[in-house]
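Inverse folding, one chain.
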């Protein structure tokens, strides 16, 4: 056997050993969800509700929050019908004082918090000329600062228990910026940095922070996203892309992967979907990726329409959406309390 063959075998053995060690470590971190006290933000609909359903089936004690009391009540009834203990309290996670009050109520009833899952978020779609500073500010407050607010409030309880899990649902949009979603991308990039930094500082305290980066998921969210400029055309491309199986993934599958990553105490994880290839492409060929995204922008709607005014997805319907092309997204909206 020549030197190169020996070196290759050595590298293969080392890689196999590393993977085996990682698997053993992750298995040792796993825990049973039954009885765990879990806070989920943005849990009244969409991915947050899908995650809450799965945790209800696993026997977790759930504290769910969102801004709409009405939507929360609908979600809570469904979760209770699954046999879960549910505390549903409205809270604007953009406001730190409200978050502090919410966590205080949760710990008063549950005693402490074992797991925090940050799902709450907003999406604003349109060209940069349609965006205002307030669009960026609101995205930062909702998608990033809210994560800091909730994390700071639960940390004392996790430290007292010398155990905890925090999951921050970011996005592939927090790893590379997609045209016409700039406020979202900026806030998700910031969230990824915050989440990874928290992991580095808290891991030695047995508090594991997981940053989940999913691509498009069929949660039904386009109906409640915000669209600007030529809002009907923006809603059409966004909702069609969200509905195509080749581009998007089932929300239930995404939720399972996120919860598995939490149980294993993993760090930054990409929720598997065809779009994950774009991350590999960006890492290997960053300039090429930027050129592809710039090319994609040329076929997206131009400035016009309602300009800087905002419209929700359900206010932006056209012949293209809803249509047969958005069937899966429409079904997800019905299933996940998005109507």
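Residues assigned per position:
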């Amino acid at each position: 056997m020549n030197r190169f063959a020996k070196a290759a075998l050595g590298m293969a053995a080392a890689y196999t050993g590393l993977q085996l060690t990682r698997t053993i470590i992750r298995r040792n971190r796993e825990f049973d969800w039954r009885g765990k006290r879990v806070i989920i933000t943005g849990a009244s609909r969409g991915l947050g509700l899908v995650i809450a359903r799965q945790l209800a089936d696993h026997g977790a004690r759930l504290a769910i929050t969102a801004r709409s009391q009405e939507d929360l009540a609908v979600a809570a009834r469904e979760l209770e019908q699954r046999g879960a203990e549910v505390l549903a309290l409205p809270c604007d996670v953009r406001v730190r004082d409200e978050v502090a009050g919410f966590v205080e109520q949760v710990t008063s009833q549950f005693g402490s918090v074992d797991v925090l899952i940050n799902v709450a978020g907003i999406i604003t779609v349109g060209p940069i000329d349609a965006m205002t500073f307030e669009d960026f500010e609101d995205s930062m407050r909702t998608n990033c600062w809210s994560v800091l607010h909730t994390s700071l409030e639960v940390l004392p309880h996790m430290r007292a228990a010398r155990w905890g899990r925090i999951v921050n649902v970011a996005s592939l949009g927090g790893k590379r910026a997609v045209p016409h979603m700039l406020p979202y991308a900026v806030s998700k990039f910031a969230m990824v940095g915050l989440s990874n930094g928290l992991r580095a500082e808290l891991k030695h305290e047995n508090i594991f922070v997981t940053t989940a980066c999913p691509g498009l998921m069929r949660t039904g969210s386009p109906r409640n996203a915000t669209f600007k400029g030529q809002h009907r055309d923006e809603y059409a491309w966004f909702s069609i892309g969200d509905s195509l199986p080749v581009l998007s993934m089932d929300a239930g599958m995404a939720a399972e992967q996120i919860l598995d990553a939490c149980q294993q105490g993993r760090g930054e994880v990409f929720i598997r979907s065809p779009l994950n290839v774009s991350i590999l492409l960006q890492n290997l060929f960053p300039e090429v990726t930027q050129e592809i995204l710039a090319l994609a922008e040329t076929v997206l709607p131009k400035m016009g329409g309602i300009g800087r005014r905002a419209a929700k997805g359900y206010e932006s319907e056209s012949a293209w959406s809803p249509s047969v092309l958005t069937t899966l997204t429409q079904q997800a909206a019905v299933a996940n309390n998005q109507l």
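The two ends are 66 Å apart (CA to CA). The longest strand covers residues 207-213.
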